Amino acid sequence: MLASTAFIIAFAFQGIAADSPLGAEDALVVTEISETVLMVEGFGGNATVISTMDGVFLVDSMMQPASEALNALIVERFGASPRAMINTHHHSDHSIGNDVFNASGTLTIAHTFLRHRIAYRRYSDLSERWVEPRPVERLPVTTYEDEMSLFWGAETIRIYHPEAAHTGGDSVAHASLANVIATGDIFVHGVWPIIDFYAGGSVDGTIAALAEIYELADDETVIIPGHGPLATRADVLAYREKLLEMRGVTLAAIAEGISREAFVESDPFLIIAPEWQPWFVDSGWLAGEFHDNLGVED
Fold first, then answer.
1. For the chain (length 298 residues), average pLDDT per consecutive 10?
2. Domains along the chain with CATH numbers
3. How crowded is residue 255: how many other Cβ atoms within 10 Å of its Cβ?
């Protein structure tokens, strides 16, 4: 039986949680998958905590001050800060709390693209502003290219980089013994997704990555999305099928010469996924992004 509890931490933060359903003042919400595996929701995306006999593995660091609360929760529950952590991608809600874990002795890991993306000044088309490089204490200290594995006791944690999907630097983490897959924002559950075309993401890459996750899972696998509640292999398949339908609708519109503006105005995706909730983006925004991405000629 999964159980959700609140880990109460008093947050003092002035800011806007535009990309998080939980604000800076909210307590963390913990879903116990087992005695050793937790999904933690807070200010930022979901975090995954996997305790092994050789240490705790963490997926994503949230945003300050939830990052400090997350570290405190792990220390309280398992006796020490994480031994290692992977950032699933560079967006702030999944990685800007890295400094907390770097300072706690956690080995912070990411795909090479991710570290490069946040280590240098860049223009973000998604937020339409220049983004300054993050300070060194917020950067992952270890990077990988294709895949890597951690062998801790009886647990094997495989980390791999799929084809450019949500961004160009995504990572998926699969704990084989726990039978848990943490997807980052390649898969979000119940909300309108972002495919960050300007940071190397793609519609086709996302669809391909979802197929990989589906094949990696079995019917008992717990899927921890980047945002939203726990999911199953069937949920990943249903999500992928909706994206495939959206892709088909978009390609048909482009073939008919329908402009981006007219396509967004018609809001065709809302009919395909009326149950998805708006958060950082909505159906019209996603339609425009699909039109941009799929309308680019090779």
1. 42 33 79 97 93 97 93 97 97 93 97 91 77 88 97 97 94 98 97 91 97 98 97 98 98 97 97 93 95 80
2. 3-241 (3.60.15.10)
3. 8
